Amino acid sequence: MQVVLPSFIVVSQSAACMLSETHAPDPTPSTWWYWFGIGIGNVQQGSCKRRIKEVAFVAINVRDLILLQFGLEQKFLTLDQIGAMFFPENREVFNWPMKCVRKLVKEGLLSVEKPGFCKPALYRVTRKGAALLRRHGQVTGLGAIEKIDTRSWEHDLWVTDTRIVFSRRLGLQHWKSERVLKQENIKKKVPDGVVSFKDKDLIIEVERTLKKKEYYEKTLLDGCLRQFHEGEIILYIMANETAKRWLMKQVKGWERIYFATIGDLTGMKDSITFENASGKKFTLYRKEDHFA
Question: Would you say the C-alpha torsion 246, 227, 183, 61 has a positive or negative sign?
Fold first, then answer.
């Protein structure tokens, strides 16, 4: 793949291997597009020319583009999340993941923020990064976030952790984020994510803190239950077992709402089991990691 842009050059994987300090082994581009379910394309096939060694450039590979798209959809990412999602073969985040991030920050594609109340640095896609994605045919049309919302950043971290587990461990990559869903349903309450599973969608809600009973009655009735088809399953991921049991009690009688804790999810080995208020189980099994 070779694309020449005003400020830098996107080169082929083989060229990136020779010329970019951030290269690590990638699957084929088509594999990345397929497994991540991300709509970026329009990158023309070509060969690596020796003459590009004489040109000042930065090698932006396929993984970089998908990282930017993922970050744009999820609002922001931490270095640990970038490592877990895009560099599973490099367990040390200060190796290839950090080199990749430094390159993207240096080129103005990522911006780093570290609010005083937040321990990890948060990386968000800039306007320049969003513009690059549009040039590559990004289908969601999302714009850059100018500032991270300090009121919900912890919840947003959990949502991204959830998406990473669904993608990496469960093999469910076709996820629509809250930002994408809001763009499609401007006036409606949308869930934290919707992920394709067999012939249906799984509606994902991550609940870091409990709200009043009236909120859930309105949200579930007016939002999830009326917006989505009857056969679709709603999965609530709760902060702990106490919160899980409380909310299960509130939604008793709604059979298609299932619950698990964030600890169940992030600590899963071979499977994760969700449970509804009637005691019925819904289990998702671990899939082979196709990216490692």
Answer: positive
Nearest to 30 by CA among 40, 15, 16: 40
Query: What are the sequence ranges of the domains in the chain?
Result: 1-148, 151-292
Strands 271-275 and 281-285: antiparallel
Residue labelled with tokens 């902060």: 239
What backbone phi and psi angles, to 5 degrees, belong to 253?
105, -15
d(CA 143, CA 105): 18
Pick 15 or 127 by higher pLDDT. 127
CA–CA dist 3, 45 (Å, integer): 9
- The Cα–Cα gap between 114 and 68 comes to 19
What confidence tens digit (pLDDT) does each residue in 11-54 have? Answer: 333 333 333 333 333 433 334 444 344 444 433 333 333 333 33
Pairing of strands 233-238, 257-261: parallel
Contact 157, 77 (CB under 8 A): no
Of 8, 11, 41, 39, the closest CA to residue 26 belongs to 11
Q: pTM score, two decimals?
A: 0.79
Q: How many residues does the chain have?
A: 292
Q: How would CATH label the architecture of 1-148?
A: Orthogonal Bundle (1.10)
Phi, psi of 29 (to 5 degrees): -55, -40
**Residues 6+ away with beta carbon under 8 Å from 86:** 63, 66, 67, 70, 97, 100
Which residue shows structure tokens 């800039």? 126
Q: Measured in whole angstroms, how far is the alpha carbon of residue 168 from the centre of its chain?
A: 11
H-run or E-run covering 245 = helix 241-250
Q: What is the DSSP letter of 222?
A: I
Cβ pair 137, 41 in contact under 8 A? yes
